[in-house]
Amino acid sequence: MTTTKKVPAYAAQSATSGLASFNIMRREPGPQDVEIEILFCGICHSDLHSVRNEWSEFMATNYPIVPGHEIVGRVTKVGSAVTKFKQGDLAAVGCMVDSDGTCPQCKAGLEQFCPNMILTFNSPDKHLGGFTYGGYSGSIVVDQRFVLRVPSNLNLAGAAPLLCAGITTYSPMHHWGVTKGKKVGVVGLGGLGHMAVKFAHALGAHVVVFTTSPGKKEDALRLGADEVVVSRNADEMKKHAGSFDFILDAVSADHDINAYINLLGIDGNLTLVGAPAKPLCVSAFSLIARRRSFSGSMIGGIAETQEMLDFCGKHNITADVEVIPIQKVNEAYQRLLKSDVKYRFSIDMASLKSE
Ligand SMILES: [Zn+2]
Ligand SMILES: [Zn+2]
User: Fold this and answer.
1) From the CA of 110, how far away is ligand 2's center (Å)?
2) Average pLDDT, stretch 252-258?
3) What is the rounded average pLDDT of the residues 158-166?
4) Of the ligands numbered here, which is closest to the C-alpha atom of 119?
5) How far is the CA of 63 from the centre of ligand 2 (A)?
6) How far is Cα 24 from Cα 154, in angstroms, rounded to an integer?
7) Distance 335 CA to ligand 2 centre (A)
8) Residue 124 pLDDT greater than 70, yes or no
9) Contact by Cβ (8 Å): 164, 290
């Protein structure tokens, strides 16, 4: 039988309850496990969707739910077979905590597409039964294969969102060959978009930000954009027609995707990382005229996530965060719905000790 210990957390008991203090059980580390004291956990939009069971068709929420998959902390204990980490090391956990390790996707380092992948929260917990609990908690125990190293120069509160917002934007840029000299567009300047701007800039691309709010122009330039286009301005949009190598679309609201596809050059690609609820209408002529492609992307594999973190260490990239205590999490969700954050909330988990 697996031995366990009680750990403080914040959980939602139903789709309408909001989050409140709750104790959960964590397993004692097995031979391959790393126990991490959680220092910071970013707030991702999918935390909010899951807490409110808004993705019930895709994956229904099991209550109580402890969300959080942008986890940074310090190793407090390691199992006997752990070689990658020792007590006192900085460590991080993203959206996944396990996979089968044997399927073609796992063998290719694409654990995010493994049919047996286990999400950090709201997935079946094979160790304790019930469902996995995420990072709005004092500690977490994870197989060393899914634990990442954190470069020591990074601000930890700002590093937490790299584990989801960071890899979600880095992976498609890597896949579609964003390098020096490429022209890259970023649609939407929120949690994902602001990371995309930082990465594209650090990779040496010419970065153009598309936004509906002219007020975001200064901030986009500060984050590393070379140009800012107000997407409602048809003349400004027209100037860029057929000129982009790659566009990352981070908008989750309904929007005209063809307006952006038409800005791609020959073989240009637009990748969607936002998740609009309604199907998008794509014009065939937008695609076939220049052999353009339209695709999606979801987080990244473990090796690629480590590569992203190392890249961030080298270029000193973190997310722009507003640090909050866990007691303000429900308020933060309200503000998230109004995009009232620059650009990600990061929960200081030390605040959990005052519960
Ligand atoms: Zn996320
Ligand atoms: Zn697999």
Assistant:
1) 8
2) 91
3) 98
4) 1
5) 26
6) 30
7) 37
8) yes
9) no
